[in-house]
Design brief:
Length: about 280
């Protein structure tokens, strides 16, 4: 079933929201840096009958693209404003990568709106990591990504045999490509819905947003799904390993931790049915 598309104005930007109507508590899905709401389509397809929402974060998908900078606290504040505007209560929020950071901050800002969090390989470093990375080079590799495409099909064909995309569920890769481009303003072809300059600015904005103070205030169940732990010598952008602080669960009041060595950082893309199973379990508690 195709979702219902709408716009919600918060914090000076229009966020594009997709809704799959259903029963029960609201389930809000929040994507990673450089991705978009429709990357969750296959997870939503595995949640029939549930009331599911997915949002394009600022700078991504069909939402507004303000000029940089993109500090990560702004994404959390947007999620908090979104659930406030929609009058959500007892929300099960699911966040992948940057989305995990965002829903964590949002739950500290609007605690009455949230009932549980599922953090899927969230980009939440150790507290010491934030101290070491108080600034980050703006010249991120994503700034050099190819931006122009003849079609979403061309994008799919280019990516399907290349890591990390070759490990994804093909249906998720199709969704990533089909909804990850928008018509080019030149009138010829397409460009990325999250332009390379914005994606790089989002990465650059991550290092200064230490949210351990917010984590300490969260008093709801939290489940963390992590890819394998990064080994010494592996680069920070090696996405076969997890960017999540290994001891993150210990900083929440009520958290459980699942290490998943069979998955890379792209858990929702590789195992949408697996992620949906965790969502169903938490939603039915």
């Amino acid at each position: 079933m195709q979702p219902i598309e709408s716009r919600v104005h918060v914090n000076g930007v229009d966020l594009c929201l997709f809704e799959w109507p259903g029963e029960g508590r609201p389930i809000l899905l929040v994507h990673a840096t450089g991705f978009h709401a429709r990357c969750w389509d296959q997870v939503a397809a595995n949640l029939p009958g549930r009331h599911v929402y997915a949002v394009d974060m600022r700078g991504h998908g069909r939402s507004s693209r303000p000029a940089p900078p993109y500090p990560w606290h702004a994404f959390g504040e947007d999620v908090a404003a979104l659930v406030r505007a929609l009058h959500f209560t007892d929300t099960l929020a699911v966040g992948h990568s940057m989305g995990g950071h965002s829903i964590t901050l949002a739950a500290s800002i609007e605690p009455a709106a949230f009932g549980a969090l599922l953090l899927v390989d969230p980009v939440i470093m150790s507290a010491e990591g934030y101290a070491r990375n108080s600034s980050r080079d703006q010249d991120h590799f994503s700034s050099r990504r190819r931006n122009e495409w003849a079609s979403a099909d061309e994008m799919f064909e280019r990516f399907k045999d290349r890591p990390p995309f070759s490990g994804w569920d093909p249906a998720v890769l199709h969704d990533y490509c089909d909804f990850g481009v928008v018509p080019s303003p030149t009138g010829q072809g397409y460009e990325l819905a999250c332009p390379p300059a914005i994606e790089a600015a989002v990465y650059a904005g991550s290092a200064g947003d230490n949210i351990y103070g917010a984590i300490a205030t969260i008093d709801i169940p939290v489940r963390i799904l992590r890819a394998r732990t990064r080994q010494e010598g592996e680069g920070a952008m090696d996405m076969s390993a997890s960017p999540t602080a290994p001891d993150l669960a210990s900083h929440f009041r009520h958290a459980e931790d699942f290490v998943l060595p069979q998955y890379s950082h792209f858990i929702p893309m590789e195992g949408p049915a697996f992620v949906a199973e965790h969502i169903r379990e938490l939603a039915d508690r």
